[in-house]
C-alpha cells in the first residue's frame, strides 16, 4: 500500500514539475507589492515586491508560480473560473484569526478568477457574516 501511494505521489509531482516548466510559455506575468504579511495557500509571504506567473486559459494545470524577496512557491487554486471583463487585476485578502489570507486572484488580463481555500475563523463558524476584504493591486509585468 505504501509503495502504491509513493508511486502515485511521484507521478503527480513529476506532472506538476513538467506543468510548471511549460507554464511560462502560456502564462501571464504580473507583479504586485504586498504591504503586509499574508498567507497564500501554505506559503507565508513577507511584505515586499512579488512576481507571479499564472496560466492563461481555463484548461490544463492551474498552478501559480510566485517569486518574492525571500520566497519561491507554487500555489494551487481551489477553483478557477472566468468572469466578465474587469478593469483591474488584484489579490483579495481577508483577515482570518488575526492573519491576512489571500482568498482570490482576479486578473483583468485574461478574465480569470483563481479562488483559494481559507481557514474559517471562530466567529464565521457560528455566523455567516461576510468578512471585509482588502484588495492588493496587481500590474502586468514588463517584458
Helices and strands in order:
Elements lengths: L1 H21 L4 E8 L3 E3 L2 E3 L2 E8 L8 E4 L4 E4 L3 E4 L6 E8 L2 E8 L5 E4 L6 H5 L6 E8 L3
Parallel strand pairs: 2-9
Antiparallel strand pairs: 1-4, 1-11, 2-3, 4-5, 5-6, 7-10, 8-9, 8-11, 9-10
Descriptive account of the structure:
The protein is of the alpha+beta class and 143 residues long. The protein has one domain. Helices cover 18% and strands 43% of the residues. It contains 2 helices and 11 strands, in the order αββββββββββαβ. Strands 1, 2, 3, 4, 5, 6, 7, 8, 9, 10 and 11 form an 11-stranded mixed β-sheet that branches. The protein is globular, with a radius of gyration of 16 Å. About 7% of the residues have low confidence.
Count of runs of 4 or more consecutive helical residues: 2
Got a strand count? 11
Overall average residue pLDDT: 75
Distance between the termini: 48 Å
How many structural domains in the coordinates?
Answer: 1
* Molecular shape: globular
As a whole number of angstroms, the C-alpha radius of gyration is 16 Å
Order of helices and strands: HEEEEEEEEEEHE
Task: Please supply descriptive tags for the structure shown above.
143 residues; alpha+beta; 43% strand
